[in-house]
Amino acid sequence: LGAIPGALPPVTGWVAARGDLRDGLVGAGVLFAILFLWQIPHTLAIARLYRDDYARAAIRVLPVVDPEGASAERQMVLGCLALYVVALLPTLVGLAGPVYFFGALGLGALFLASGLAQALQPSAAAARRVVLASVLYLPLLFALMALDKAG
Fold it and tell me: Which end of the chain is more exposed for a tag (fewer CB within 10 A), N or C?
């Protein structure tokens, strides 16, 4: 799905701004993990929303090969849950402060709730809410990180 290539450009910018990979290795790793994990529920929600289009184009995404949705929804929730935990790391490794931490807790809870709603009652409307939550989540999370950067 391109989660690795999708996460690399911001990490490259992070390293360029730091001037040295060793200086910002932990930060680059945390940023990469957030961007990588965010793409899982985001992409699965889009694939669920446009499952019929993917099927007609013979693109084998999880919601196409698992039309019942159990596996896709489970992966969506697991992705949201993993992101929820990893998004707290910037504070724990000294990149962000407490405002970021509590903001990340709230944003993560909302994103996870949208994934759980899709898993419990799968529908196009619920998938659309996951997509909306995902496109709001990431810029808000990074805005919090920029506003409450440590040091």
Answer: C
What does the pLDDT read at residue 69? 73
Residue 150 covered by a domain: no
Q: Provide the residue range defining the domain that includes 117.
A: 3-145
Residue 22 has a pLDDT of 66
Cα separation of 77 and 118, whole Å?
9
Establish if 61 belongs to a structural domain: yes
> Count of domains in the chain?
1
With 0-12 CB in 10 A as exposed, 13-18 as middle and 19+ as buried, what is 111?
buried
d(CA 57, CA 55) in angstroms, rounded, equals 5
Q: Would 14 be classed as within a structural domain? A: yes
Cα–Cα distance measured from residue 80 to residue 104, given in angstroms and rounded to the nearest whole number: 12
Asked whether the predicted pLDDT for residue 151 surpasses 90, the reply is no
Rounded-to-integer distance, Cα 87 and Cα 17, Å: 21
In degrees rounded to 5, what are phi and psi of residue 149?
A: -70, 140
150: left (phi over 0), alpha (psi -120 to 50) or beta: beta
